[in-house]
Amino acid sequence: MGITNLLTRERAVDGKVVVITGAARGLGAGLARRLAARGAKLALVGLEPAELAEVAADCADAAVFEADVTDWADLETAVQGVVERFGGIDIVIANAGIAAAGFVRSIDPAAFERTIEVDLLGVWRTTRVTLPHLIERRGYLLVVSSMAAIAHAPAMAAYAAAKAGVEAFSNSLRAEVRHLGVRVGVAHPSWIATDLVNAADEHPVFGPLRASMPGPIGRTYPVPVALDALEKGVLRRDRTVHVPGWVGALKLVRAFLPPVIEIGARLTGNLVARADKAALADIAARGADVSSRPVGAGGAAAMRGR
Question: Percentage helix, strand, coil, to 5, in the chain?
Fold first, then answer.
């Protein structure tokens, strides 16, 4: 079935139809370009048509489908368009995601709930609409979760909850569809130098809080590091992708991480308490909707879509 390397279990994607949500920038755009270079046909889904068109221009055979992953009608129209254009769907990469930084007691409720809608319900809706086509072709679904699903940092409750939910969703789904020939993978990137992370680092409260994270857990990794792992994961139809590899080891000790994070906050001079106070001051100065809105251009597009 298109095996190109029996030793690495890689499968050729030449001629395969790949749907990528959140394909306008970051990991989605980079992965689209890489798979296109391997001969894949790309269906680029997102809310930024100009940026999607730029990505499509770099791919030999690609089409743009403007859609909000939280909107059933948008997704159904997009998927219908993909099937009409390419004849079916072999691979789906549910990558669309946003992040809103803020403490639970003060974050703008609209920003918190939009993060859950895009990052968790968007994955569910993308999966539900594309799954019949994946079953037809015995395809592969890769859901992009995060290290935040494993290590739950303060000021990231919405994002961590959504990404943990995405991991659980993927694990349940994998067992449900294996007998149908569909493989399901879940990716856990750490901090990757995408527009989303770079914009988060510019936040007056969250940026300094993240900068205090120790060792590799706080390090930002270059985009190609993530793309290398994700590309390999797609080619091998892996069940898990960890970026970098040590993120997988966190799963072995995840039960101990919450108290470790709490102790770490105390040992850094009660940094979280100071950040909480700073967040309240920032909200008083700029308003909750500005202070805690989803970061970056992708986040802004998601809020406009809402």
Answer: 55, 15, 30
Q: How many domains does the chain have?
A: 1
Q: Provide the 10 A C-beta neighbour count for residue 19.
A: 29
Is this structure's pTM higher than 0.85?
A: yes
221 included as an active-site residue: no
Model confidence over 158-196: pLDDT tens digits? Answer: 999 999 999 999 999 999 999 999 999 999 999 998 888
- What is the rounded distance in angstroms from the CA atom of residue 282 to the CA atom of residue 279? 5
Mean pLDDT of the chain: 91
Question: CATH number for the domain including 254?
Answer: 3.40.50.720
Closest CA to 283 of 103, 159, 98: 103
Which candidate, 146, 144, 143, places its Cα nearest to that of 160? 146
* Catalytic choice (159, 169, 191, 206): 159
User: Which residue in 187, 162, 305, 300 sits closest to 244, CA to CA?
Assistant: 187
The boundaries of the domain holding residue 124 are: 3-305
What is 240-293 written as a DSSP string?
EEEESTTHHHHGGGGGGHHHHHHHHHHHTTSHHHHHHHHHHHHHHHH-HHHHTS
pLDDT in tens, 3-24: 445 445 789 999 999 999 999 9
CA–CA gap between residue 126 and residue 67 (Å, rounded): 11
